[in-house]
Automatic annotation (TrEMBL), chain A:
Matching PANTHER family: ABC TRANSPORTER PERMEASE PROTEIN, BRANCHED-CHAIN AMINO ACID TRANSPORT SYSTEM PERMEASE PROTEIN LIVH
Compartments, as annotated in UniProt: Cell membrane
InterPro entries tied to this protein: ABC_transp_permease (IPR001851), BCAA_transport_permease (IPR052157)
UniProt membrane topology term: Multi-pass membrane protein
Superkingdom, taxonomy of origin: Bacteria
Species name: Methylobacterium pseudosasicola
Lineage per the UniProt record: Bacteria, Pseudomonadati, Pseudomonadota, Alphaproteobacteria, Hyphomicrobiales
GO biological process: amino acid transport
UniProt protein name: Amino acid/amide ABC transporter membrane protein 1, HAAT family
Keywords: Amino-acid transport, Cell membrane, Membrane, Transmembrane, Transmembrane helix, Transport
Entries under Pfam families matching the protein: BPD_transp_2
Transmembrane segments: 6-31, 38-58, 64-82, 145-164, 191-211, 223-251
TrEMBL record, chain B:
Keyword Mitochondrion: no
Location(s), subcellular: Cell membrane
UniProt keyword Metal-binding present: no
Gene Ontology molecular function terms on file: branched-chain amino acid transmembrane transporter activity
Protein name, per record: Amino acid/amide ABC transporter membrane protein 2, HAAT family
Cellular component, GO, one term: plasma membrane
Pfam families per UniProt: BPD_transp_2
Keywords (A to Z) from UniProt: Cell membrane, Membrane, Transmembrane, Transmembrane helix
Regions crossing the membrane: 14-33, 40-59, 65-90, 97-115, 149-167, 197-219, 231-247, 254-272, 287-308
Membrane topology: Multi-pass membrane protein
Lineage per the UniProt record: Bacteria, Pseudomonadati, Pseudomonadota, Alphaproteobacteria, Hyphomicrobiales
UniProtKB/TrEMBL annotation, chain C:
Similarity annotation: Belongs to the leucine-binding protein family.
Alphabetized InterPro entries for the sequence: Leu-bd (IPR028081), Peripla_BP_I (IPR028082)
Region described as Disordered: 428-452
Keyword Signal among record annotations: yes
Stored PANTHER family: BLR6548 PROTEIN (PTHR47235)
Signal peptide positions (record): 1-20
Upper lineage: Bacteria, Pseudomonadati, Pseudomonadota, Alphaproteobacteria, Hyphomicrobiales
Classification via Gene3D superfamilies: 3.40.50.2300
Protein name in UniProt: Amino acid/amide ABC transporter substrate-binding protein, HAAT family
UniProt keywords, alphabetically: Signal
Superkingdom per UniProt: Bacteria
CDD domains: PBP1_ABC_ligand_binding-like
Length: 297, 320, 452
């Protein structure tokens, strides 16, 4: 293969795989936004909390499975607690108030996580060897492939949940039309609880995979900044949109950094994704999948 | 409103330098954002970027046009920030709510990148951190602690008055009309697109001037990192906690966000002793601050202004 | 509103009571937030050394050392708040913020208050020129000498500086003022030694570097210099592994050289090399003493004893040594009592610790030497290089001297511009040195004799 072309493919493949990682975080946002209209900024703090709890338990000698189970339990409790203590009293408040409340929650979670487990940085080894392998002159990361597989499994599980379980169906009913769902006798608080638990689990998966990439430390909560342009592009309320947008954002980001960077200056990854998402929405206001009702004028 | 004028004119330099001056700068930023979010109903997470634009514009103007008197420089810097606001507000013509909010992050990150990338903006300083010029107006120096405070107070009072006039003007009513019902506003003849961009411009003007105060009167240095996303959130907090759609709200909110952590820190140190691990203290503080924010929002979603009004009302009721 | 402010003022305006013969170190520490790991290590080491001096020697010549902490989270405005809060404490010796941003915001303030500002291994490069910045001390290493030191080391790796000709060096820098500071110096050194340099920016915070490392993969450089910060460092090492770049050809700068930078990268960090001004490890007598006399009685500052001897902890201890010796030297000149900030500044300007003195302090091998003068506030710190073996750092080079002479003109150009901009007249160091010459010799002998 032509080396320039191989390099291009490499950049795109790397971008797509990074995009999966962004989508992984974005899905946590989508779950909560879809049912309660809240942009949950505490998602980043939850990712940090999950990873820190898991790695700290691991370092205290718990076996992998035990630590995973314990962290799972902690995340369930955390999700329930946030829903019960913060979101439920704020029901029917404007979205901006709810958003601010989740920021307040993120302070509490970040503080508590560091108070409980310290401010040390930790390595997290999931046991996946990250030496790259080559396919036709193109380097592919083993770990990123694994992460993409996990993300795929998670999406499949979530889809199955929504399609085949009672709570999942109720969730979709609420997302489609909360008033009709209420009329039909669905218990909203129960669904919200379920959604917060689900968001906690997504945070755990994202925390483990991102934690293995970055190390487990405070900066882990900053991965949400990578998820936000994905949300704008894919829609705050679509899991499929988040995945697709994640892939696009990842690829666009890498392509522009590598090929555009030398001309306008490097380090443009921080904002180019937002601009790309915006440009797309201006051209095609109905959004990526063309299904959702974008809040637009 | 009036109470703000009677700020104690006696006090230690700590009170001026570390509490009142940053309080004023952030309150002014909150005021600016409140015009946009509280009155026009447009959500922005780019306030820190507009502060940065104002601060760096003022720095460059005073560096390259030293002939301009400081008030003119600050006004011009506000105009530059307003222009940035209008550009940054363009997505508002198509987007709303959180889509708009997240879109303004593009401005936030782009400004940070540009300030870092374009050396000319920070006078090609090798470390990228530049020193703010002196606060001298018409030969009178405002360099000492109290001077910095009074300088900020004058600017804030002036702009607060201007904002107060604005919200009572027809333009102010247009803003509220867009917030309450955009389609209805359009029918009644409000030029929606123009008014939205105007809201971004006016708001960013004030936020930009707040950035000048923050850099010139308070920190005395400029660096891009000081105007990061956390600052934008902080300003949004000020507006929400204080109360959307009230000018007083920005001051109450800024008081809450600036003064409360300091009081918490002192209280913590007083209770637990000076030698107590400052990190643990800080984390407890962060938790308490988060809980207080959530508590205020639950107890009084309309913000501290509403809480205050109710308390005053109750007192009056009791007195009567 | 007003009542609240007044109440706040009474609450906040508290200051510690004055006591005789104490020297105070106000600490703008950061034990929370993204850089907490560095902050806890550095300030922990600093406090541990002050503790050691108090418990072992009863202070410096009987003057007890005290300190107070204010949390900054590495944020400039919090640093300023802490400065304003603590500056009225009596007997302040020096400020040690360990943050470039906070240090910049303090330069005007400490110059007006006449108290030294110590920015060990970091800070404003042109403040090396003590003629223009009398109160600022970027001790041991500034960003320019760091760059020179790294290139000198790469020269030894290539088999001589002349062998660098035709080589390609990629510099991966953090997208911040800090990261960009050395761009012109690498360009200059590239011209001097004839190597090709490619400087690549990683946007803050640096948690995603696929595109940068793919660019590096295409460039195929001989070495990559990592000028990183926080999470950017482990991610760089991981991504290097992912893109097949050999880790032992990556050289980290002084803020990419700690355990916290290597551990999160796991196996990907094994073989990684980084510059340092102080060796890590616990084998040095002074660290041993800290373990015995501070940690065993339970007065240690680090929560996790495993971190004793880590890079940041040893940097903190070294910072303690330099501060304490400056106070000791100043005492030799001004008397064994609580000194003013200006007197301590004199001590820093005469901080000349040769290898023998360093050995006497129990720090042989921990760091090389320092030689601060009125004009040179950096003090010709030597650097060494350490390699990560998967669990700890191992020194793999001699003490290397950066090429200070070639950097001095750039520094002076910048400081002269600063002086002009701010209407300052540089001090006449020769005259000041002469006036002090007699006093200095006796001071040094005096202090050296008593340092045991």
């Amino acid at each position: 293969m032509n080396p320039d072309f191989a390099f291009l493919v490499e950049v795109i493949v790397g971008g797509l795989l990074s995009g999966v990682m962004y989508a992984l975080v974005a899905i946590g946002f989508v779950l909560i936004y879809k049912t309660s209209g809240v942009l949950n900024f505490a998602q980043g703090a939850m990712v940090l909390f999950a990873a820190l709890t898991f790695v700290s338990l691991l370092e205290r000698g718990l076996p992998f499975v035990g630590a995973l189970a314990a962290t799972l339990a902690v995340m369930v409790v955390l999700g329930l607690a946030v829903e019960r203590a913060v979101l439920r009293p704020l029901v029917n408040q404007p979205p901006i108030t709810l958003f601010m409340a989740t920021l307040g929650v993120s302070y509490v979670i970040e503080g508590a996580a560091q108070l409980a487990w310290g401010t040390q940085v930790h390595g997290l080894d999931l046991g996946i060897d990250d030496t790259p392998f080559e396919i036709g002159g193109v380097l592919v990361s083993r770990f990123d492939l694994f992460a993409a597989g996990v993300a795929g499994l998670m999406v499949a599980a979530l889809t199955a949940f929504f399609r085949y379980t009672h709570t999942g169906l109720a969730f979709r009913a609420v997302a489609d039309d909360p008033f009709a769902a209420l009329n039909a006798g669905l218990r909203l608080p129960r669904i919200w609880s379920a959604v917060w638990i689900a968001a906690g689990l997504v945070a755990l998966v994202a925390g483990l995979l991102w934690g293995a990439r970055l190390g487990v430390q405070f900066s882990l909560s900053l991965v949400v900044l990578k998820a936000l342009p994905v949300l704008v592009l894919g829609g705050f309320d679509s899991i499929a949109g988040a995945i697709l947008a994640g892939l696009i954002v990842g690829a666009v980001e890498k392509l522009s950094e590598v090929y555009l960077g030398p001309f306008i200056g490097g380090g443009i990854e921080g904002w180019i994704a937002y601009v790309a998402a915006l440009a797309f929405l201006l051209v095609r206001p109905s959004g990526l999948l063309g299904l959702r009702s974008v809040e637009r004028v | 409103m009036i109470a703000l004028g009677i700020v104690p004119l006696v006090g230690t330099s700590y009170l001026y330098e570390a509490i009142l001056t940053p309080f004023l700068a952030l309150a002014l930023a909150g005021l600016g954002l409140n015009l946009l979010t509280g009155y026009a109903g447009l959500l922005s997470l780019g306030s820190a970027a507009f502060m940065a634009v104002g601060a760096y514009a003022a720095f460059n103007l005073s560096l390259r046009l030293p002939i301009l008197p400081l008030p003119v420089t600050i006004f011009a810097a506000g105009l530059v920030a307003a222009l940035a606001g209008v550009i940054g507000g363009l997505p508002a013509l198509r987007l709303r709510g959180f889509y708009l909010a997240v879109s303004t992050l593009a401005v936030q990150f782009f400004v940070a990148w540009a300030l870092n990338r374009i050396g000319w903006l920070s006078n090609d300083s090798p470390s990228g951190i530049v020193t703010a010029p002196r606060l001298v107006v018409a030969g009178i120096s405002f360099e000492d602690a109290r001077g910095r405070y009074l300088f900020s107070l004058a600017v804030v009072a002036l702009l607060t008055f201007a904002a107060w006039r604005l919200v009572r003007s027809p333009t102010g009513r247009d803003l509220v009309a867009i917030r309450d019902h955009e389609t209805a506003a359009r029918i009644t003849g409000v030029r929606v697109a123009r008014t939205k961009l105007l809201a971004f411009g006016l708001s960013s003007f004030i936020v930009g001037v707040a950035g000048v105060l923050w850099a010139f009167a308070y920190l005395r240095t400029l660096e891009p990192a000081g105007f990061n996303l956390d600052r934008s959130f902080q300003i949004l907090f000020i507006v929400i906690i204080g109360g959307l759609g009230t000018l007083r709200g920005a001051f109450l909110g800024a008081g809450f966000i600036v003064v409360l952590p300091l009081i918490l820190a002192r209280l913590g140190a007083a209770i637990l002793g000076d030698g107590f691990d400052s990190g643990t203290l800080e984390m407890c503080q962060r938790i308490v601050l988060g809980i207080l924010i959530v508590a205020v929002l639950i107890r009084e979603p309309a913000g501290l202004t509403a809480l205050l009004d109710r308390a005053v009302g109750r007192l009056r009721g009791r007195a009567a | 509103m007003r009542a609240a402010l007044l109440a706040g003022a009474t609450l906040l305006g508290l200051a510690g009571g004055a006591r005789a013969d104490e020297q105070h170190f106000p600490l703008q520490s950061y034990r929370v937030g993204p850089y907490a790991a560095g902050g806890t290590g550095f300030f922990g080491g600093f406090i541990d050394y002050l503790n050691l001096i108090n418990s072992r020697d009863g202070g410096v010549n009987g003057v007890k050392l005290t300190w107070s902490e204010g949390e900054t989270q590495y944020e400039v405005e919090r640093g300023v708040e802490v400065y304003e809060r603590l500056k009225s404490r009596p007997g302040i010796a020096a400020w040690n913020p360990l943050s470039v941003g906070i240090a910049y915001a303090m330069i005007d303030r400490i110059t007006a208050d006449k108290v030294p500002l110590i920015t060990i291994n970091h800070g404003r490069t042109d403040s090396t020129d003590g003629r223009v910045f009398p109160y600022v001390f970027p001790l041991l290493l500034n960003p320019y000498s760091e760059t020179s030191g790294i290139v000198a080391y790469l020269g030894t790796r290539a088999g001589g500086l002349d062998k660098l000709k035709g080589k390609t060096i990629a510099v991966l820098y953090h997208g911040s003022p800090y990261g960009k500071e050395t761009i012109p110096i690498y360009e200059k050194l590239a011209k001097t030694y004839g190597f090709k340099v490619e400087q690549i920016e990683v946007p803050h915070p640096g948690n995603e570097q696929q595109s940068q490392w793919l660019t590096i993969r295409r460039l195929r450089p001989d070495f990559v210099v990592l000028r990183g910060w926080g999470v950017m460092n482990p991610v760089a090492l991981k991504t290097a592994q992912k893109t097949g770049f050999p880790v032992d050809h990556i050289v980290g700068n002084v803020w990419s050289n700690s355990e916290e930078d290597a551990i999160p990268a796991g196996d990907a960090a094994k073989g990684y090399v980084a510059i340092t001004t102080q060796a890590s490890g616990t084998e040095y007598p002074v660290i041993q003493e800290i373990v015995r006399k501070v940690y065993e009685p339970g007065n240690g500052n680090l929560a996790d004893k495993k971190r004793i001897g880590s890079v940041y902890h040893n940097l903190g201890v070294l910072n303690g040594i330099l501060n304490v010796e400056a106070v000791r030297i100043a005492q030799g000149r001004f008397g064994k009592r609580t000194l003013t900030g200006d007197e301590v500044r004199w001590g820093f300007e005469h901080l000349r610790l040769d290898e023998a003195w360093v050995a006497e302090l129990g720090a042989k091998g921990l760091f090389h030497s320092i030689n601060v003068t009125c004009a040179n506030h950096e003090g010709e710190g030597r650097v060494t290089f350490q390699q990560w073996d998967g669990t700890k750092w191992k020194v793999v080079s001699d003490w290397i001297a950066p090429d200070w002479a070639s950097l001095r003109p750039i520094i002076e150009a910048s400081s002269t511009a600063y002086a002009k901009e701010h209407g300052l007249t540089p001090r006449d160091c020769a005259a000041e040195e002469q006036a002090d010459a007699g006093a200095r010799n006796t001071a040094a002998e005096h202090a050296s004799a008593e340092s045991r």
